[in-house]
Amino acid sequence: SRINYVSQGYERIWGRKRESAYSSPETWLEGVDETHRQRIRQAMRTKQVSGEYDEEYRVTRPDGSFCWVRDRAFPVRNDKGEVFRLVGITEDNTEQKRGAQLLQIQRDIAVALSMTGDVTSALEGFLAAFINLDGVHCVGAYLVDTPSERINLEAQVGLHPNQVRELLNFPSFHRPEEVGKAWHRACRKQQVANKD
After folding, report:
1. pLDDT attached to residue 171
2. Among 41, 86, 161, 189, which is least packed by CB within 10 angstroms?
């Protein structure tokens, strides 16, 4: 197979040069997240020619970032009704996907709150739902102790116990920006540890 035209949007969505698609037509498939790749490969072979190809999947770029796309293909037929070309359109639908995920999280939070009067349990339910968002690896909820104005970690999901201990031993959790920086460092450390 040969690719005749690739728009500039390919570089933005896939994070790869258009030339790579021209020189190796199936290179775009390498960008399809491995959890979706087999399904997309199968759909490409069976649905594109019939005009039934309309797929949603995640693209993982070479730098590790990702986006969600809706990918469609349409057959172009000659005078004899034979398919001689396929035309495809890929749209970045990350925002729509994120909106649907956030709506589901809202539902999960409502369920968690309706099932318990315990704030910590409700927060853990909320965080467990939130961690399912794409790109979220660890989340935490902090509450402010009014008399001391200390910011306390109330619940968390995604951090190793050592990272949690390190956060709890942080000397001055009095300003939100300090908490945010410490949390960001802990999550980055956890991501690195998970890769190893």
Report:
1. 57
2. 161
Task: Tell me the longest C-alpha to C-alpha distance in the chain.
Answer: 82
pLDDT in tens, 33-76: 999 999 999 999 999 999 999 999 999 999 888 899 999 999 99
C-alpha span between 181 and 36 (Å, rounded) = 34
Q: Give the helix ranges, DSSP H, for the chain.
A: 9-14, 18-23, 27-30, 34-47, 94-115, 119-130, 161-168, 176-195
Are the C-beta atoms of residues 27 and 16 closer than 8 Å to each other?
yes
**Would you call 18 exposed, middle or buried from its count of C-beta atoms within 10 A (0-12, 13-18, 19+)?**
middle
At residue 136, the 3 state secondary structure works out as: coil
Write out the H or E segment, with its range, that includes residue 145.
Answer: strand 139-145
What tokens appear for 162 in the block?
A: 């050592």
